[in-house]
From TrEMBL:
The chain crosses the membrane at residues 23-44, 119-141, 162-182, 217-236, 271-290, 321-344. PANTHER family: D,D-DIPEPTIDE TRANSPORT SYSTEM PERMEASE PROTEIN DDPB-RELATED, DIPEPTIDE TRANSPORT SYSTEM PERMEASE PROTEIN DPPB-RELATED. This is ABC transporter permease. The keyword Ribonucleoprotein does not apply. Belongs to the binding-protein-dependent transport system permease family. GO terms for cellular component: plasma membrane. It is found in: Cell inner membrane; Cell membrane.
Length: 356
């Protein structure tokens, strides 16, 4: 009787090392990207015609005070030493003191970022809630009046400046009709009643049980969120339509139709499921753009968020705040790209098959 030899499994450690190398490459890519962004902001800050010493102590300070601050900032060190000290400072999440507020930049960002995050998230929900169905229906009824309407509105939202839409919206819905709240996040009469818990004032006002205050907060955020969401809606609907048209021309859709499956079942049950992964990527990147691109909208609506803080820092030549905001924006894009890559591996079996 033949003896059965034990079966070895050499592929298991091979798969482990492949995934380890993939994670290592991903981590190294993130580190190099953030390091490059930090280097770029450092050298741009040194090239700008702004004297950081004068920005801190003013024009009328004595030469002795100027020299003391020059030494305190480390500007008398070689450039390579300044860069090493700068990277070590960033590694501790220490961006220095903001000239515009005299507070640590990290504290300022923690204070203003929740307002932008709340605004951008609501805008993203509007974009996703209307953009994906609009894109699917536009592809489903290609060249129909609805398709032409969606494409026209998308083009219109891209070509119309957001600050103009904000001003017209305030003029119509706030000044004329009185349907919404004005600039800011909340009316003055409710400002001291709101107890910040999460930093998201819609949630905080709901937790307080004061529904009049919740209505007031919602009335202030709905117009700027809708204007931001309009651009997100246009982008998401256009990309969803493109993904769907590609899927609807595939052979499996033709085969399903030949077998008697209804058109709506083919679209919503099969094609939509196959575009889930690229659509998630589009949604994530659109949300990141909303976080970074709300500058004009926040300025028009006097929204005390990240974009308005960055604008004030740029106008005042506050490089510490500018660098902190720039690095945060870059980190958001890098992390969201990493999340999108992980989603691809989680939901697309073809990527997992390549690792085996």
């Amino acid at each position: 009787m033949a003896q059965t030899l034990p079966v070895s499994h050499p592929a298991a450690p091979s798969l482990f090392w492949r995934r380890s190398r993939t994670l290592l490459r991903g981590g190294l890519s993130i580190f190099c990207t953030l390091l490059g962004l930090a280097a770029l902001t450092f050298f741009i800050g040194r090239l700008l015609p702004i004297d950081p010493v004068v920005a801190i102590i003013g024009d009328n300070a004595s030469q002795e005070a100027y020299d003391r601050m020059f030494h305190q900032l480390g500007l008398d060190q070689p450039l390579w030493q300044q860069f090493i000290d700068y990277i070590a400072q960033l590694a501790r999440l220490d961006f220095g003191i903001a000239l515009t507020t005299s507070q640590p930049v990290s504290s300022d960002i923690l204070r203003v970022f929740p307002a932008t995050l709340e605004l951008a998230t609501l805008a993203a929900l509007i974009g996703v809630g209307f953009g994906i169905p609009a894109g699917v229906l536009s592809a489903m009824y290609r060249n129909s009046p609805f398709d032409h309407l969606v494409r026209f509105l998308g083009l219109l939202s891209y070509s119309t400046p957001h600050f103009w839409l904000g001003l017209m919206g305030l003029l119509l819905f706030y000044a004329t009709l009185g349907w919404i709240g004005g600039p800011g996040r909340i009316d003055f009469i409710y400002e001291f009643d709101l107890q910040p818990v999460t930093g998201f004032w819609l949630i905080d006002s709901a937790l307080s049980g004061n529904w009049a205050m919740f209505k007031n907060v919602f009335g202030h955020i709905i117009l700027p969120a809708s204007i931001l969401g309009l651009s997100s809606l246009a982008y998401i609907s256009r990309m969803t339509r493109s993904f769907m048209l590609e899927q609807l021309s595939q052979e499996y859709i033709i085969t399903a139709r030949v077998k008697g499956l209804s058109w709506s079942r083919c679209v919503w049950g099969h094609a939509l499921r196959n575009i889930a992964v690229p659509t998630l990527t589009v949604v994530a990147l659109s949300w990141a753009w909303l976080l970074e691109g709300a500058v004009l909208t926040e300025t028009v609506f006097a929204w005390p968020g990240f974009g308005r803080y960055l604008t004030n820092a740029l106008l005042a030549g506050d490089m510490n705040a500018v660098v902190g905001c720039t690095l945060l924006t870059g980190a958001i894009f890098v992390l969201l790209n990493l999340v999108c890559d992980l989603l691809y591996r989680l939901f697309d079996p073809r990527t997992r098959q390549e690792e085996k």
